[in-house]
Amino acid sequence: MALGGSTNSVLHLLAIAHEAGVDFSLAKLNDFSARTPHLCKMSPAGKHHIEDLDRAGGIPAVMGELMAAGLLDDGALTVTGYSLSENLAGAEVLDPRVIRPFEDPYSPTGGLAILFGNLALEGAVVKRAAVAPEMLTHRGPARVFNSEEEATAAIMAGHFQKGDVIVIRYEGPRGGPGMREMLTPTSLLTGMGMDGEIALLTDGRFSGATQGAAIGHISPEAAAGGPLAIVRDGD
After folding, report:
1. pLDDT tens-digit readout, 43-87
2. Is 107 a catalytic residue?
3. From 6, 25, 187, 207, active-site residue
4. Are 218 and 201 in contact (CB under 8 A)?
5. pLDDT grade, residue 28 (50/70/90)?
6. Is residue 209 pLDDT above 90, yes or no?
7. Which of 104, 164, 113, 112 lies closest to 138 in space, CA to CA?
8. Residue 92 covered by a domain
9. 51 within a domain of the structure (yes/no)
10. In the sheet where 199-202 sits, what is the strand order?
11. Residue limits of the Dihydroxy-acid/6-phosphogluconate dehydratase C-terminal domain (predicted)?
12. Around Cβ 213, how many Cβ atoms within 10 Å?
């Protein structure tokens, strides 16, 4: 949340919780987001890169900001055998332009958000940190594709207009199968300078390099009979 990182982290957290037998719902991530400020705007959402973050103090410095604000349990024992506060002793923010102070974040809420609605009854994920402000609310006609390949071919042929909502379905865990990353369509739209003009919805997923109003992990997926399966062009 503080880094505005990859939406894939949602999958990993849920999987780890499942294996550990911990009750951890998708909706709980919004609770975390509500109290975790967005402190780092990393590429492609911002101009800073991972090496900039490292020079600015790295993850320990980010965690130090969160711990000082009471958002981390400083007494928690870690795999090092030391507590979190002991591990973070000496951590320091060396460049507040890269790691913003807790009191001056890019946003008071985290970089990821869980969405629910008539197409995502069981939830969807968006990297809010990479969405242009003007795209946080958007209305437009659907352009529906039944695979990443279909969508990629249409985008490369220019078969879309500003304001469209590109829907890529049957790319979930069952439909893909395997829930591929929709990296090619999002990269094409960004390269064309359209990531601030077009929204993209999918039951597939995205890479950490996603930029724009890209909403993924839509559940239930189309192949499981989710509402995404009945969306038509122009809706």
Report:
1. 888 899 999 999 999 999 999 999 999 999 999 999 999 999 999
2. no
3. 207
4. yes
5. very high
6. no
7. 164
8. no
9. yes
10. 113-115, 123-126, 214-219, 199-202, 165-168, 142-145
11. 98-235
12. 24
